[in-house]
Structures are given as structure tokens and as C-alpha cells.
């Protein structure tokens, strides 16, 4: 545990009674005294505060930035309006997903990229490699990054002195110098992600926490919230062997880019789309109460292996176990009954539409 | 008169004559977090000390509970099927896991008393 990176606000989490664990090289709060169940439900009901400073923000700037990003990602960066965010991926030549990202256009030649903690170093190296052919400047930012998620988020931030009411889902702004605020998140709820300098962060977090509608939320509930919302976790549901068509995230790639974009991995992705993926990501609902976890094999009626669970646990809001995984395309239709192998037992499990809980984003 | 013993794996075993009730400690339930499923053994199953007897599943993970001593399962806590959170709320009372008939009471001598256990988690 000694090599783990520490959150700048670690002492605040300790004061809140957090239980810590290692995640992606960081010492992260897993749960607080409320416990994962209450934390999860509280987020959907009111609002939860997450310290996501383990995630990495990059600014990329220079006259060539849009072209650079459209090469690195299956993205029409030039068409992205200032203040708009887009979910996208970083692909290798085989269209395998190196990471999933949120790209925001800050200005004509400036973009913000938010990357996953565990992939940050790899992403940066990849960006710098691709950038050899472009005139761009890439900076990894040192920020505290907080997410406030849930229906009360907007009014709580207003009370903390930050008015983000003008933002709609997947738009962003720079409300103060060296701050970045986006209406986005990883829970399926309305909410915001705010990056700010460490010197200002403690005071800002304390202002938010002074609102009695807010509690800290740990990584355990972050995981159950995102799974209910049907959102992928890179390293589990996505990795460098999985392409966007198999991952069922082609919605993130504009049709024009799929057809004619010159991004890394384009050829491989077009081939996969033309031939059809050999496995596809689906939602899964185990029958009964027993959770089916990551790694469990999925069998058809004949007992043949037809897939694998990549994320599984319990959904506190839906009140039953939930999972996500990959199956052969013939088994992708919701309602298809499969069997999951768990510790030698065979549990019935149904292919289920995603998300498990409806998204409640504030669309523009 | 019953006597309660504890294991290094955070189980408790309350012995009355030749039978015993087994569960996990308050410390263990706190570490696991909110339980959502408990996989109980079949009545009549023979357990060896150290066997994985029960699987307790929290929102996030599944963990084994080991048999603290040898014996035969005589009863399981059926209430946990519909309400696994009993283990969180009352781990040493309504959240018990299984009862067993002991086959070798001398094995109890290797276990800790409450004071000894508390010293290990302090």
C-alpha cells in the first residue's frame, strides 16, 4: 500500500470516517460510515459528493488540436462546439479500446480531456506519440476533481457559490481561473464534475458538505451506481481487445466518422462493423437474490459457453442483483435466458436492457 | 450455560453442550459492508475445520466464512434468505449463520475468548 498515490483531500476523507482501499494506484475511499447501500440511494434521492481526483485531466491546445483529436479518437472534433463535451474512446490500430474519455471543447484551439486514473500514463504516452505529427501542446493538469451527483446537485452548488444552472448535460465551462466544471457524471443522475486547484478545494468541498443534503460517496457506491446506469468501467467492461462495436458504444461515434473518419483503428473498426462483432456487451439480470460477479461464465441451454460477465453486483435502487457482460451475438436479445456459473452452481440469468435505472440527465 | 469463542478469521462460535451456533463478528460485518446475499450450507453437511461453510456477499464482493471446528450442520438461519442485512444489524444475535453438532470439542481449546479476539482487532 505504500506506493499508492494519495488524494490531496485525504485528511477530509479520514475525518469523515472513510474506509480506504487501493484502486488504480490510488488510496481511495471505498465507503463512509453510511455504507454503500445508503450512499447509493442517497445519491439518487438527493446528492452525493465523490472525490474523483484520481482521474486525470489534460488540456490539449494549439491550432492543430481538432485535427489531432480526430486522429487519436473516432471524433469529429472540429464539429464540436465550444462548451460541449463528448464521450469518446482512444483506440489502437485494431480498434481495441485503450481508454474511454470525455473530450470538451473549451475554445477554438483548446480542449479538455478527462481520462481514467488507471490509464492516465498510458493515455498520455499514446497522445504524445500521436502528437508527433501535429502541432499541439499537451498538459497533464494537477487538480482536485469533485463530482456532485443527484437531483439536488445544481441547487447545492449554487449554495456553495457556484452557479452552473446554465449548463445542460454534456456541456462545460471554466467558471473561475483554473477551474473546469461539466454537467456530467458516472451515476445516471443529473450532476456535475468540478476540477479546481488544490488550494481552493478544501474550502469548496467543505461548503458543499455544509449542505445537509450532501454526503460523501465512496468507490463502492460509485461502482453500483454506474452499473445500474449501464455505464462501462474500463479494465472490466472495456479493454484493448474490445472494439466499440462489440462494446455497444457505437452511438458515441458519429455515422460520418464511422464511415470516413481518419482515426487510428478506423480500418479495423469498419471491418468489425461490416462483418459484425463476435461478441456484444449486454445487461444481465440474475434470477433470484444471488449476485453474479465479474468473470462468471455464461452458458446456453445446451451448456455451451456463450459469454462472460464483466461487471456484476447488486443494484441498491433496483433491489436485485445486476450485471453486464459479453455474449455471442445470437444471445443478445433482451429476455434471452442463459445460465451463469457461480462456484459450481448454475444460476439462471436473463439478458436485460440497459440501463437498469433510467438516466435522469438534464438535457438542454 | 453457553460459552463463546472467536477465530482469527472473525467468526464467533457459541457452544452449548454438544452443539454450537456460528456467525461472523461485528468487526467482520463492518469490514464487509451491507450484505445482499448469504449462501448457506445444507443441513446435514459435514464440515471440517477451515472448510468454506458459507459465502456472504456484499454489494461489491463475495467472501467465505470458514467452519471454526469440525461438525455437522444441524440448522441454518433461513431468515437470511430474505433478509441478509440481519448479519449487519445483529451479527451475534439474529444474524447467526448456522448451528452444528460438534465432533471434536477439544478443537475449541485453540480458539480465542472475547478479550483475546478484541486484542487482535484493536
TrEMBL record, chain A:
Enzyme Commission identifier(s): 2.1.2.10
Nucleotide-binding keyword on record: no
Residues covered by the GCVT N-terminal domain: 11-255
A GO term for molecular function: aminomethyltransferase activity
Sorted UniProt keywords: Aminotransferase, Transferase
Positions bound to substrate: 193
Recorded catalytic activity of this chain's protein: N(6)-[(R)-S(8)-aminomethyldihydrolipoyl]-L-lysyl-[protein] + (6S)-5,6,7,8-tetrahydrofolate = N(6)-[(R)-dihydrolipoyl]-L-lysyl-[protein] + (6R)-5,10-methylene-5,6,7,8-tetrahydrofolate + NH4(+)
Matches recorded under NCBIfam families: gcvT, PRK00389.1, PRK13579.1
Family in the record: Belongs to the GcvT family.
PANTHER family documented for this protein: AMINOMETHYLTRANSFERASE, AMINOMETHYLTRANSFERASE, MITOCHONDRIAL
Name of protein: aminomethyltransferase
TrEMBL record, chain B:
Membrane-spanning parts: none
Residues where N6-lipoyllysine is found: 60
Annotated InterPro entries: 2-oxoA_DH_lipoyl-BS (IPR003016), Biotin_lipoyl (IPR000089), GCV_H (IPR002930), GCV_H/Fam206 (IPR033753), GCV_H_sub (IPR017453), Single_hybrid_motif (IPR011053)
Cofactor details (free text): Binds 1 lipoyl cofactor covalently.
Cofactor(s) needed by this chain: (R)-lipoate
Gene3D superfamilies associated with the record: 2.40.50.100
Quaternary state and interactors: The glycine cleavage system is composed of four proteins: P, T, L and H.
Function: The glycine cleavage system catalyzes the degradation of glycine. The H protein shuttles the methylamine group of glycine from the P protein to the T protein.
Family as reported in the entry's similarity comment: Belongs to the GcvH family.
This protein's name: Glycine cleavage system H protein
Organism: Chelativorans sp. (strain BNC1)
Classification lineage: Bacteria, Pseudomonadati, Pseudomonadota, Alphaproteobacteria, Hyphomicrobiales
